[in-house]
Design brief:
Elements lengths: L2 E5 L4 H10 L5 E6 L11 E6 L5 H8 L4 E4 L6 H7 L3 H14 L9 E7 L22 H18 L4 E7 L1 E3 L12 H10 L4 E3 L6 E2 L1 E3 H13 L1 H4 L2 E4 L6 E2 H16 L6 E3 L19 H7 L7 H16 L2
Parallel strand pairs: 1-2, 1-4, 2-3, 4-5, 5-6, 6-11, 7-10, 8-13
Antiparallel strand pairs: 9-12
Helix pairs in contact: 1-7, 2-4, 3-5, 4-5, 6-9, 6-11, 9-11
Amino acid sequence: MKRITVLGATGFIGSAVLKTLARQEIRLRAVARKPAEVPPGPAEVEVVTADLTDRAELAHAVEGSDAVVYLLLGDGGWRAAEEGSAERVNVGVMQDLLDVLGRDDGVRPVVVYGGAASQVGVPQREPLDGSEPDRPETAYDRQKLRAELLLERATAAGRVRGITLRLPTVFGESTPGGGHDRGVVSAMAARALDGQPLTMWHDGTVRRDLVHVDDIAAAVSAALAHPDPLSGRHWLLGAGRGDALGDVFRLISAITSEHTGTPPVEVTSVQAPSHAPVTDFRSVTIDSSAFRAVTGWRPEIPLGEGIHRTIAALARKARP
């Protein structure tokens, strides 16, 4: 049985990946700063708590792994990256991981890294297909790109088989014991449930490629099943729709109204804050046909269903 180690197993995406992989007959190691909940399934699950910025704890956490799924994110997201406090997690842990994964038996472990579609910077065209030059605009995206390049170099040197999955805008409900979605869909759903207006920093025509977290977890599983043809480069994941955020916000308002029996909240445009990155005002649609051709993966959860599930989960959590 393969041993697959998930780093960041209690995060929003990590816990969904853990749930998906637990359905396989594998040895599964769930690593995070706090104990992960063991999901149901035939997998033999080992729970490990560790501070992965400690090189010794990291080495222990990944020892004997056939594959490692790297889904760590520095606390505070892109703002922490701008302040410099997240670089140790976003870059340094990747360097340490590649250093400690070396094995004497000639086996090259697989490393699946959760990158970001935004690493390309301001999109110069639609859709993105992975062939664009990278010109990251934010410190967060520069750090993600540095980690990706470290992985590519280690793969070229024959030390690991590295696969970067550049993720789109991921949304959805959290799994038991997992982290919460801090993205735009959940933020607006929470506002709608609270009866607050949904505000946009633009006229609503800006598009995002939205994919439910369970579909992203399925993509990670598909990557683990096809390591050799995927190894050595990055791959874009997306639904390929390019959903206008104004339409998405109005859908959130309407579905929340159905769920609560209250009138739909207003969707309105407001002045953007000074800290808003330029990428927030550019549309993104993603062509993931290259990854789909290798793995057979495709998003299965329609946008409306995903939003229904997200709102229902947030409403359950808010109940006294």
